[in-house]
What we know:
The chain has 231 residues and is an alpha+beta fold. It folds into two domains: 3-88, no CATH class; 95-230, Jelly Rolls (Sandwich), CATH 2.60.120. The chain is built from three helices and 13 strands, in the order αααβββββββββββββ. It has helices at residues 3-25, 28-33, 36-88, and strands spanning 95-99, 108-110, 117-118, 123-128, 132-133, 138-140, 145-154, 163-169, 172-179, 188-197, 202-207, 213-215, 222-230. Strands 3, 5, 6, 8, 9 and 11 form a six-stranded antiparallel sheet that branches. Strands 4-1-13-7-10 form a five-stranded antiparallel sheet, with no helix packed on it. The protein has a two-stranded antiparallel sheet with strand order 2-12. The longest helix has 53 residues, at 36-88.
Amino acid sequence: MSSRMKGFAFFLLALCSCLSGTQGQGDHEDQKACCPSDTCSLMKELISIAEKLGAMGEKLGTMGDNLRLMETRLQTSENEVEELKRLTGGRPQVAFSATLWETGDAPGNTGPFTTPIPLQYKKVFSNTGSSYNPATGIFTATVKGMYYFRFSMMNNLNTPPNSVVCLTKNGQRLVSVWDTTGSDANDSGSNAVVIPLEVGDNVCVELQANRLVHDDIMNYNTFSGFLLFPM
């Protein structure tokens, strides 16, 4: 209980004692008019109320401290958001573009593998927002929004060709490029999508099982994407 409430309770106790003593000296009629026991009972109830009010005051004080702490944290977050807006012009910036082989890699095929695997586009031209990971070939959305993705493929230089790649979202195949028939072996193709992504969604280009793609210093196999607008 706060010092103010304690002082108020002490005052009520003292008043109770004084009233009891004064009324004890009066005549019988005065005692009937105001019984000391009734007065003290009332004082005790007031003291109990004062104690409860004191406890509530302490709780309110704790709540006030917590509220001020939350206000401080909110202000810090708002400052960080404003700084991000200043740096990006108020819009999140996410964009990347990469090709399959590093400079200096010898021409050749990637694959085949017994299971589908994400292609690792190791030579990164741009990666604003750092959402694309060249070590895994996977793009992970850090902003909820509508995205554009495009990828290209060149088939293996064998006859017949044996190339199939698919763009996947969270492991689900969306669109594909393939070349598995024909007498020539130097074709390429591309595909693209516009899709919504939640934060944490993964997008990659997947080489299908037992398939191959070919690349060299001309960079035929690419993977690119960017945020159209947040949602």
